[in-house]
Amino acid sequence: xxxxxxxxxxxxxxxxxxxxxxxxxxxxxxxxxxxxxxxxxxxxxxxxxxxxxxxxxxxxxxxxxxxxxxxxxxxxxxxxxxxxxxxxxxxxxxxxxxxxxxxxxxxxxxxxxxxxxxxxxxxxxxxxxxxxxxxxxxxxxxxxxxxxxxxxxxxxxxxxxxxxxxxxxxxx
Length: 172
Description:
The chain is mainly alpha-helical. The chain has helices at about 10-30, 30-50, 55-75, 85-90, 100-115, 115-125, 130-140, 145-170.
């Protein structure tokens, strides 16, 4: 009956798809090969729209080899995953580091030792994210008073938590 004329893309696909797939899989594995072949056939279709390709097999292999090379280069730049637990034989519980719960408990105890007005300014500014100006306006106090309260609280916390800091981060 009627014979439908095949396009250059269809002819190339029927003639070379199997060997190109085997070539790609032998070099990059199954998953990467699928992606590369998808890109290859898409690029081939685009190229056929703008130019006539006289030797499609040579063109397809050249582009595929270039894409495989790009894949290797990308993989070489990507750092390999290393399980540091196995690499350095890390124990689950280590005596070298203090327990974070104990550290946080020490911080809370230090907050409790601050005078209430200093504690309120410090917590609202550092933990709640309010500006000193907002705190001053809310409390109806001069900004300099709020700045002083925060400074006193910071210095007192530094003194109270020096030992906790040294235990956690090592002495300076």
